[in-house]
Amino acid sequence: MATDASAVEAPEAYEELVSEIERVNAVDSASEILSWDQQVMMPEGGTPARSKQLSTLSSLSHELLVDGPVGDLLDDLDEASLTDEQQAVVREVRRQYIRAERVPRELVEEISEATSEALGAWESARENDDFEEFAPHLERLVDLKRQYAEHIDPDADPYAVLFADYEPWLPLSQAESILDELRETLVPLIEEIRASDADLAVDAFEGTYDTDTQEELSREVLELLNYDFSRGRLDVSTHPFTSGNQFDCRVTTRFDENDPIGALTSTIHEFGHAYYTLGLPDEAFGSPLGDHRNLSVHESQSRLWENHVGRSEAFWELLLPKFTEAFPEAEGLSTRDAYDAANQVYDENFIRVEADELTYHLHIIVRFEIERELIGGELAVDEVPQRWNELYEEYLGITPPSDAMGCLQDIHWSHGSFGYFPTYSLGSVMAAQLYDAASDEIDDLESKIETGEFEPLGEWLREHIHQHGQRYKTNELVVEATGEEFTAAAFVDYVTDKYGELYDL
What we know:
By secondary structure, this protein is mainly α. About 65% of the residues lie in helices and about 5% in strands. The radius of gyration is 23 Å and the shape is globular. Residues about 1-10 have low confidence and may be disordered.
């Protein structure tokens, strides 16, 4: 009888649980909008008030999750008879609850306030090329995040605990194995490319390109790719990012008058993030079934659109007439020239977001290794610039000329986002595997891209990735979508073939 009773009661307890977690996520959504505003539109003097606002909302979210009925409802559902989707929701909420319940509210508030203050310090330090200005904030955040990890699991590697905030269902050991394979593949491949005599049209886009016109073209590209402007917008920020939910997902980019390709690839990258978010089920908004799986999967969507679509020869066949219409000075440029320029591997590149498709991952591996050393206590904050430069010399053969172009280049440490960076490369690896699977199922996908038919690829991603929300764990989702385990094999084949052809290797 007890079993039957729990089965009958389960739906009511489940509905109550979903209602509670929707309230938590509503507060988190409000925080995200305030954070977006801080990075895009807020007056420069607004930081003190915004820090308090974000800290209060962070604390409120924590209270709703930990001090409300969520824990009791999870207990009620322990032996309940649930559908697979309901079990997935309970699994995700339980994981979120356990981690939050172990972290004191005071620490949550302190981390929120510290990150809000660190953002302004990072922006100033980067502008002034002054690491010492940011160092105290970084030191404070490293300490706070160590405390955070200690509360969640005192027996675990603290970096693994932090990594699980962004990639909860992929073991750090699997991530490290993939990153090791990337380093072992890319370092010698890049050396071969630099030694190659291939004559690519690397200067095809040399010149000055009006940034207002670049913005108009970026909007046209977003429309071409089927971005829903009724649920989104395009703005400019120091560091391109995407923010929002399936009803309101906003993208930002940045423009450089000397680099029109950088703005286009950045915009397409952020489109991939937004397209995923906008493809999540409307009816599941606020629950795990209406939320993205994790950052590796999110990054797989942005990197798939940026690299496998936006850097393809087929896409440039489509885009070039629009580009030359916007910039008549580029008249006479061939598709192959544009493709060469969009895919060149730079001899010297210090900035991750401006990096080519290959050296990009070595930027990530450098930061990943430094993060591990910082959180593990093997590296002091004041040693970061020197360590950064050493690793750049070892992996890329270059030394950044300044900290602004080195360890201060990315915003993530000001957010306290240790463990975030590996998801960029993991997402690229996953993108190659997903694109391979999509290509096998969609007839002549390259021709469809060339003629601007993006619906088949978009629908494939909606069906195999977006609609599932957090129903599956990471490895399960990859198998569900591709029929194969998540590995680096497809990515290694992709870059070896593509760059072998480009550089006559």
